[in-house]
Specification:
heterodimer, A: about 325 residues, alpha/beta, eight-stranded mixed beta sheet, four-stranded antiparallel beta sheet, 12 strands, B: about 575 residues, mainly alpha, Four Helix Bundle (Hemerythrin (Met), subunit A), MetI-like fold, three-stranded antiparallel beta sheet
């Protein structure tokens, strides 16, 4: 079935090419996102995985051009063929929420504490769809019911602090889906939730995608979430994508030492009683990425070549569409 | 852990917690109650102290006689005006008059109508015919005059004069059998905004009574229902006074144009033949003078005793000793209608000023000026501060730079000198002193609120819900007003409460120094300024106490709100 969809897959809804985001600080330039490219397809999910500080969230905010100053964004983002980086602020504002929406990690802090959740869901409709107050309110209740909130009419009148964590996240999703956006960027949407609620929320994403055909970018540090919800996965390290493949391929036949290290450190894959495997060292500073391959400081396969030349993202393995950025990917596959 | 409890009933919302927290503070309750009473005394001042009666039933023989005397003369001059051209009027109008012919015509018609009305209303029903005819004749004449139909106006004029003669004769015949009329002079002098404030303040004062009653009886004591009906209550408490005020504006008899009537003097002299008169508890006007009682000490003190000739019995101002056998005559104090007796303790409980005006009455009326200046200046400076502070805090960069420097510039000028200088420069003919002082205080004192708002916006613009709002595609104005401002409101409200206190104090200082509010409308600060002699201690003590009490109460209220909004400063249950 996956194959059939692959073949039928139309042109990408969102094409991100060579996205670069840098912050000027007194220590120099922090290149948080450094040449990231990927495509999002209608009704499909791309998982973006990486550890804290690798530039996942910055990627999402860069797509929406919400990087706070002094940050600067370069590169190309095309939404259904329309170049977003060429739009002025006003036109970009019309895109946000209406065509590309975002769900945040902490629903408690991302919801405004002084307004009822119904009002907050209705607000996007008031602004983008120019609905009347009464219509927006009725539609908000529908949306809340759609994201699985029982007794939506009552909940719509409540404040964020009166809802549970899972319900708040459902509200955030209802807000994001209010205008039926083509693209949904979900930044760690399940991290603040417990496991059962996590599963429900992921299921909800799937359901909404089937219904509305939304393309989803699922940003997470949790490989289990990706395995469950994404068809394709991109692994990010130090501001770049180091490997990208279909989920099955990536989990079964990883070709980049970093991906391999990540998968090895999964508790589920560690035999009982053995200490968890960890990748030695920590992520280098964004002010001062290592020369050549950025993973070389922590890589078991690192050699002289790795410090000299930066590996490009190249086809790897047997499956078409599997890309990895490693000089020694054949060797890595045998690790 | 908290979940099961929360599921048992709807959890308390932020307002519930805030009110519960406020309710635990005794000092806040005391201060709020005192403030409510202070505002009540200011709002209800006309009902407490006035030289107009609430209700009067009687015959105004003076007014009747005057109207009878003047009726024909006024009609003649109206007839001349109606049949005259603009040029001839302008040629003969009084020197310095700015009226054109139309204005003069309307004024003269109103004068004729008023006199006819006075006569008509005082006559018994059977004798009103001639006056009804006269009033119709006036309208016909006026109509012809307005239409510039000279011939018709000439004829109507002659007829109106005949009618006036007839009306005067009819009045003369009916003079012995005049009927008494009931009137409500005090209520007639109230304006619709005053009525609005009076009714709405009744809701505020009665809150401890009606609120529990409504909650228990109408809402069955359910927290959720009570919470849902908060807005309904507010709507009723604001809507009722509004409706009453509109009804008042539409229905209440407009105050007679010349109602500076000295009712008390007329009653005493018999010009008004009264059957029943009801005066307010203190039957004194705020500008009513008793020249023989200048700087009379509070009448409950021994030093205030006076004899019938207007000499003090003791103290430095007692009757001069008399080595030659000659006693200079005193000025007897005039005790007018409705006033307490000469040496009653209630005559001037807080003493009088240089012109013998009662200090208690002036304190009550002065509260209107002082308290409203405090509120208005605080409201204005909060608006200025929030607008500038939010722009600086939300946008940062150049806007922040410019506004922050502006704040520093305003801050580094000593505020009092700026206020004094500005109020000395303002021309009272251009800008009323009341408005001027509010503007000046607000323009000097907005910096505190602006800095607070800026800090709050700096903090909140980094918050995730603002980022989420931007990700939803909301514009900056909407985010500032709808998302950030409500979250920043707590500290700003506290600053506003302190600003009211500061505004009252500043106005007092300015008025005390002789700028600001001018006579005869008193403000508390200008009352203190009535005398600087230690001998007249009451003049300084009582208004000073009023200022002190209000400012202290506002500071207590501000502190209580601040502490109640701060979760770390909560009093343990």
């Amino acid at each position: 079935m996956s194959g059939a969809q692959e073949r039928a897959a139309p042109a990408a809804v969102l094409e991100v090419r060579d996205l670069r985001t840098a912050f000027a600080a007194d220590g120099g330039m922090a290149r948080a996102v450094d040449g990231v490219s990927f495509d999002l397809f209608e009704g499909r999910t791309l998982g973006l995985v990486g550890e804290s500080g690798c530039g996942k969230s910055a990627t999402a905010l860069s797509i929406l051009r919400l990087i706070p100053p002094p940050g600067r964004v370069a590169g190309s983002v095309r939404l259904r063929g329309r170049e977003l980086s060429a739009l002025d602020d006003e036109a970009m504002r019309a895109v946000r929420g209406a065509e590309i929406a975002m769900v945040f990690q902490e629903p408690m802090s991302a919801l405004n504490p002084v307004f009822t959740v119904g009002w907050q869901v209705a607000e996007a409709l008031l602004v983008h769809r120019r609905l009347g107050k009464r219509d927006a309110r009725a539609r908000a209740i529908e949306l809340l019911a759609e994201v699985g909130i029982a007794d939506a009419a009552l909940r719509a009148r409540q404040y964020p602090h009166q809802l549970s964590g899972g319900m708040r996240q459902r509200v955030m999703i209802a807000m994001a889906m209010a205008c039926r956006p083509a693209v949904l960027l979900a930044d760690e949407p399940t991290t603040a939730l417990d496991v059962t609620v996590q599963a429900q929320i992921l299921e909800l994403f799937g359901e909404l995608q089937r219904k509305a055909g939304t393309a989803l970018l699922l940003i997470t540090h949790d490989l289990a979430v990706v395995a469950e919800a994404a068809e394709r996965v991109a692994v990010m390290y130090a501001g770049r994508i180091v490997e990208e493949a279909s989920t099955v391929e990536l989990f079964e036949r990883p070709r980049h030492p970093y991906t391999i290290g990540l998968l090895r450190s999964l508790p589920e894959r560690t035999p009982r009683g053995r200490p968890l495997a960890a990748i030695p060292g920590s992520v280098p500073s964004a002010f001062d990425w290592p020369s050549g391959c950025r993973f070389r400081t922590r890589c078991p396969l690192a050699r002289a070549l790795c410090a000299e030349r930066e590996p490009a993202l190249e086809p790897a393995g047997a499956e078409p569409g599997h890309l990895a950025a490693c000089h020694f990917q054949e060797e890595a596959a045998r690790l | 852990m908290a979940e099961p409890a929360a599921r048992a009933g709807p959890p308390a919302d932020a307002w519930d917690r805030f009110f519960a927290e406020l309710g635990r503070r005794r000092l806040f309750k005391l201060a709020a109650a005192l403030l409510a009473l202070l505002y009540a005394s200011a709002i209800y001042a006309p009902l407490i102290a006035s030289d107009r009666p609430y209700y009067m039933e009687g015959i105004d023989r003076g007014a009747f006689a005057a109207a009878q005397r003047e009726l024909v003369g006024v009609t003649r001059s109206l007839a001349v005006l109606a049949a005259e051209t603009e040029e001839s009027y302008l040629a003969r109008r009084a020197q310095g008059s700015t009226w054109d012919w139309g204005q003069a015509l309307e004024a003269e018609a109103a004068a004729a109508r008023r006199r006819g009305q006075i006569l008509r209303d005082a006559l018994p029903r059977g004798r009103r015919g001639a006056l009804d005819d006269y009033l119709d004749g006036i309208e016909g004449l006026l109509d012809a005059g307005r239409g510039r139909r000279i011939d018709e106006a000439l004829r109507a004029g002659e007829r109106a004069i005949e009618l006036a003669e007839a009306a005067r004769r009819s009045a003369e015949e009916g003079r012995a059998e005049l009927v008494g009329r009931a009137s409500w002079p005090l209520f007639a002098s109230l304006s619709a905004p005053e009525v609005f404030l009076m009714v709405s303040w009744a809701f505020v004062l009665g809150w401890p009574l009606w609120n529990p009653l409504v909650n228990r009886r109408l809402l069955g004591g359910e927290r959720a229902r009570i919470r849902r009906h908060r807005r309904t209550k507010l709507a009723v408490a604001l809507g009722t006074p509004l409706a009453v005020a509109f009804a008042w504006a539409a229905l209440a008899p407009s105050a007679p144009a010349l109602d500076a009537a000295p009712y008390k003097a007329k009653l005493a002299s018999g010009a008004i033949e009264a059957r029943r008169v009801v005066f307010p508890p203190i039957a004194l006007g705020f500008a009513e003078t008793h020249m023989a009682e200048g700087f009379r000490p509070p009448t409950w003190t021994q030093a205030s005793r006076m004899d019938a000739e207007g000499h003090y019995s003791r103290g430095p101002r007692r009757r001069p000793s008399d080595p030659t056998g000659f006693t200079p005559p005193g000025t007897p104090v005039e005790v007018r209608w409705g006033e307490p007796a000469l040496n009653s303790a209630l005559r001037h409980p807080l003493g009088t000023d240089a012109l013998g005006r009662d200090l208690l009455v002036r304190l009550l009326w002065g509260g209107r000026v002082s308290l409203s200046i405090g509120l208005a200046s605080a409201a204005l400076l909060t608006v200025i501060g929030v607008v500038l502070g939010s722009i600086a805090g939300y946008f940062g960069g150049l806007a922040d730079m410019a506004i922050s420097r502006l704040i520093e510039v305003v801050l580094c000028i000593p505020a009092l000198y700026l206020v004094l200088m500005a109020s000395a420069l303002v021309d009272p003919a251009v800008l009323s002193p009341l408005v001027a002082i509010v503007l000046i205080i607000a323009l000097v004192a907005w910096t505190g609120v602006a800095r607070l708002a800026r800090a709050e916006f700096l903090r909140l613009r980094e918050s995730e819900f603002v980022l989420a709002a931007r990700a939803l595609g909301l514009g900056a104005p909407r985010i500032i007003v709808r998302h950030v401002l409500p979250n920043a409101l707590g500290p700003i409200l506290v600053a506003a409460a302190f600003a009211v206190a500061a505004g009252i104090l500043t106005e007092s200082v300015v008025s005390f120094l002789g700028f600001g509010i001018q006579h005869p409308v008193p403000s508390w600060g200008s009352l203190v300024n009535e005398s600087r002699s230690a001998e007249h201690w009451w003049v300084q003590l009582f208004p000073g106490l009023a200022i002190f009490l209000t400012v202290t109460c506002y500071n207590l209220v501000g502190e209580a709100i601040r502490d109640s909004l701060d979760p770390r400063a909560r009093i343990p249950a």
